[in-house]
Amino acid sequence: MTNPRHSHVLGLITHLAKQLQEYWFLFILLVWQWGNLPPLWRGVAIAALVFWFLVWPITKWATLTYAVTPDAVIIHSGIFVRHHLHIPYPRLQTVQRQQWFYLRPFHLETLQLETASHEDSQPEVRLPAVPTSVADTINAYRRQTAEPTATPHAPSAAAPDNPAAATSPAGPSYRITRRALTQFALTSTGVIPLVVVLLGIYGKLPKSWENQAIDQVAHYALPLLLGGVIIVLIIGWLGAYLWVLLRYYHFTLTRTGDQLETVKGFFQRNTVTAPIARIQAVRFKQNILRQWLHLQTVQVLLASKAATDDDDHDLVLLPAITQAQLYATLHPFIPWVPATAPDLTDLAVPRQARWLLSRNALLVVALPVILLCWLWQPWGWLSLFLVPLAYFQGQFAARNTGGRRLSADLIVLQTGHLWTRETFVVRRRQIQSMEVNFSVWMRPKHLAHLTVNVRHGNSKQAIELRYLPAEQVQALYDWYTH
Amino acid sequence: MSPTSHHLPPRIKRIWGYSTLGSFLFGLVATGLLYWAQIGWHWPGWLVVVSAVITLVEPIVEAGLIPYRYRFTRYQITPVAVEIQSGMVFKKRLAIPIARVQDVTLKAGPLLQWQKLTQVTVATAATSHTIEGLELATAEQLREHIMQLAQEARHD
C-alpha cells in the first residue's frame, strides 16, 4: 500500500453528492431565470453547471490519492494547488471509520484521520470509499510505532509484529443492553430542538386554515390548540427516540492493547479508534431525567474533533450505564479511572453558601423578567416562571458540586450546570492551567471559585466549581503548583 | 501569594498613564465627530453630551485606578510554574506549569518598546495568558527557561 492509490469509484458518488448538496440552489437559479436568458447564455449556463457538478468533482476525485507507508499516511489532493500531507503515526489522535449500509457489500468505508493540530474544525483527512483494509493497516502500524513512554499502561502484548493481528480484539469489551439503550433514547434531550422546529412549522401554517378551523369549531379552539401542541411533542419525542436508537444501535466498546474502539450505528456503522494515552479527561454526564433513572453517559475529551456527531462532539465510551456499575465497568478500559465510586465531599459547597448560587441565578434572570413583565403584558407575566426555575437551578448546582483529589496524579470534579450533572476525572499532567477566583466579600466567608482548564477538541474545557471552602481550593492549588 | 512574587516593573504605570491619555484623545475625537454630525445632519444632541461625559469620566477613573492596578497585579516565575495574580475586588490567581507551556510570545507596541518592556503571552494546549509588561531581560530569561524544558521529551 505504499504506492499512491485512488479511492474506489463509489467514492466519486460521495464527491458528486456533496457538490449537489452544497450548490443545489444554482439549479433553482437557472430554472428561475430560464425565461429571461437568450439562447446563447442558456448554453453557457448549462455548460457551467455540467462543469461545476460533474467535471469538477470527477477531477477532484481523480486527483485525490493516498498512500499508507510504514511511517506515515500520505495524502495528495488538489487540482490547481496541490496539497501533500504527511501524518506520522505517533501524531494521529483518532481514526474514524464510517460505513454506510450500501458500502458494506463492497467492503468500503469513509475514513477520517485526526491530529491535535489547531488547523480548523475539519478533520485533517477524509477519504470517501476506501477499502476497509486501509484502516486496519493504519491501526496496525500505529500500534507498532506507539511511543513506549507515552503508553505506560499498555500490556506487553500491545504491539503485534503482524499487522493482520490488528483485527482480533483481545481486551475487555462492552455491549450496550437493549434496556439501557431504550432508557437512554427515551431520556434524550434531543427532543427539545426538534420540538422547537416543529412548533415553528406549526406556527407557520397559513393563518387562513387556522382561522377557518377555529371559525368552524369555535368552541373547540382551545382543545384544538392543546391537541396540536401535544401531537407536536409526541412527534418530536418519537423522532428523537428513533434518532438515538439508530445512532447508538449495537453500541460496542472494546480495548485492544492501548487503544479504545467504539462501534455504533444502524444505517451507518461508525467506528472510532483512539489511544488511551491521548485521553485528556473522562466525563460522566447526566441530565436531570437520567439522574432519576440513575443512568450516566461516559465520554472522553480528546485533543481532536473525532466524533462530530456525538453529544458535544465528544467521543462517547458508554452511552448509558447505571450509576452503580459505572466505575467497575469503566476501570478495565481506562486503568487510571478508580474502580469504585469516590466520595466527592471534599470540594462540596458549604451549606451556608448554597444560597449564593441561587442568588446569582436569580440576578441573571431578574432584569429580563422585569422588562418582560413591564413591557409585554399580559404574556410577559409568563416569564415569572423563570424565577423559581433560577432558584432551583442554583440549588441544583450547589447540591451537585463536588470533588476530591484521589491520588498524587488524579482529581475528580463534579459540577451541576443547566440541569446536567457532569463529573470529570482528570490527571494532573492533563490540567493545562488552574485558576482561583474570589471576591473581597468571599474572603471573610472563606470561599473561593476553582477553574481547571483541560484541552478539549481544538480549544479548552473549563471545569468551574463555584463557592468552595477556600482551604480546600488552596490545598488543590498548592498540589498543582508544587 | 508567597513573598517571592514580584510586582510588574514600575515603569508600566507610566505606560498605563499614556494609554489613558490615548483613550482620552480618542474620546475627544469621537465627541468632535458627533458634534459635527449634530450640526451637519441634525443628529440628536444628547449623543454629544453622553460622549463628552464618557470622554471625561472614563480616563479619570482609569487613571485613578492605576496605583491599585499596579499594587494588585503580581507575578511569580518558579522553576515549575508561572503564576499570575490580579484584581482588586474580584481577585484571580492563575497557575500554568512550565511543563504545560506550548509557546511563549513576546509582544511590544511602540510605548512598551520605548520603555524597554514587553508583553508576555504564555500559551498552553488549551488556554493562553498574558503578563502585561515585563523587563526585556526577565521575559527573555523566562522564554529561555521554557525552551530548555521543551527540549525534554513531551507527549501531548
Automatic annotation (TrEMBL), chain A:
Residues 146-170 have a biased composition (Low complexity). The chain crosses the membrane at residues 40-58, 184-202, 222-246, 361-379. The keyword Methyltransferase does not apply. Keywords: Membrane, Transmembrane, Transmembrane helix. Coiled coil: none annotated. Residues 145-171 are annotated as: Disordered. The keyword Transmembrane applies. Residues 61-138, 248-320, 407-480 form the YdbS-like PH domain. It holds the Pfam family bPH_2. This is Membrane protein.
Automatic annotation (TrEMBL), chain B:
InterPro entries: YdbS-like_PH (IPR005182). Coiled coil: none annotated. Pfam families: bPH_2 (PF03703). The keyword Transmembrane helix applies. Keywords: Membrane, Transmembrane, Transmembrane helix. The chain crosses the membrane at residues 15-37, 43-66. The keyword Glycosyltransferase does not apply. Residues 70-146 form the YdbS-like PH domain. It comes from the Bacteria. This is Membrane protein.
